[in-house]
User: Which sequence fits this backbone?
């Protein structure tokens, strides 16, 4: 049977439409594989990270007096409660990415040991200690001349390593829990606002130094989330009006002095916002 030109056009159009559907379906499947299956109540959830994830020194603390400083109202606990998940919180103050991946931290095993094939959600706020973010903030809060003796070359070297370290950790999580795990990178809330903030107790040079580290850290998180196709919750970019000099009810992070928590760390309100952003990222995935 002969097919006219109009018939050939129709056939080609139908073939193209079918091919497009196949491509779209493959893309959707790939996205679903990256972001995991829908979370159900009682799913296993592992929270990894350093003090910003642990809710360091925020009361009430986990029973037992762990040196990790985990709070019962940290963002992992709030997310677990809201989504009715079984939480295994292995976040710990002072942790670097190596402590999450393959290096014990004191008596605590590598954090990734908590991730199994039954894990359906992993959140992580880690990497700040790799670039000495909070350590530098503390030094600048105590010494107005901190920037004059700062080792910028070491900082650049540490930042050069960080994307690879985070990517390696994400790959390891997927290998341990694949293929049905959602991973959410949670950025460090912005510490240094654009406006003046006496609560930081920083000199102008100290403010610039600490602020630049925080900005670079957030950029690394965004880039890694994009390249590895994980979810991101980014309180840093929403920080206007929520810095250390904001009213207490709106303050997401502390300055030099903290009434509930640690200096230069998220407040209870900050953890509530981080939890909200994690929940939104999951809902939109």
Assistant:
């Amino acid at each position: 049977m002969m097919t006219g030109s109009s018939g050939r056009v129709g056939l080609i159009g139908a073939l193209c439409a079918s091919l497009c559907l196949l491509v779209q379906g493959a893309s959707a499947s790939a996205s679903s594989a990256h972001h995991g299956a829908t979370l159900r109540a009682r799913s296993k959830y592992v929270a990894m990270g350093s003090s910003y994830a642990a809710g360091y020194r925020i009361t009430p603390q986990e029973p037992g007096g762990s040196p990790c400083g985990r709070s019962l109202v940290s963002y992992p606990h709030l997310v677990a409660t809201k989504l009715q998940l079984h939480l295994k919180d292995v976040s710990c103050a002072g942790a670097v990415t190596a402590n999450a991946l393959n290096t014990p931290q004191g008596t605590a095993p590598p954090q990734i040991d908590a991730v199994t094939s039954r894990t359906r959600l992993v959140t992580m706020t880690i990497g700040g200690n790799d670039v000495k973010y909070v350590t530098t903030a503390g030094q600048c809060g105590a010494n107005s001349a901190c920037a004059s003796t700062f080792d910028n070359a070491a900082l650049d070297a540490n930042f050069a390593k960080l994307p690879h370290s985070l990517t390696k950790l994400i790959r390891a999580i997927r290998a341990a829990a694949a293929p049905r795990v959602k991973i959410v990178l949670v950025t460090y809330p912005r510490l240094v606002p654009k406006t003046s903030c006496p609560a930081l107790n920083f000199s102008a040079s100290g403010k610039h130094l600490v602020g630049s580290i925080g900005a670079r850290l957030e950029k690394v998180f965004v880039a890694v989330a994009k390249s590895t196709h994980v979810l991101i919750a980014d309180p840093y970019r929403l920080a206007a009006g929520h810095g250390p000099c904001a009213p207490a009810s709106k303050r997401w992070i502390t300055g030099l002095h903290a009434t509930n928590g640690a200096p230069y760390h998220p407040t209870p309100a900050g953890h509530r916002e981080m939890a909200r952003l994690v929940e939104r990222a999951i809902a939109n995935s």
The longest strand covers residues 119-125. Residues 1-33 have pLDDT under 50 and may be disordered. The chain has two domains: 1-35, 37-283. The CA atoms of residues 135 and 255 lie 13 Å apart.
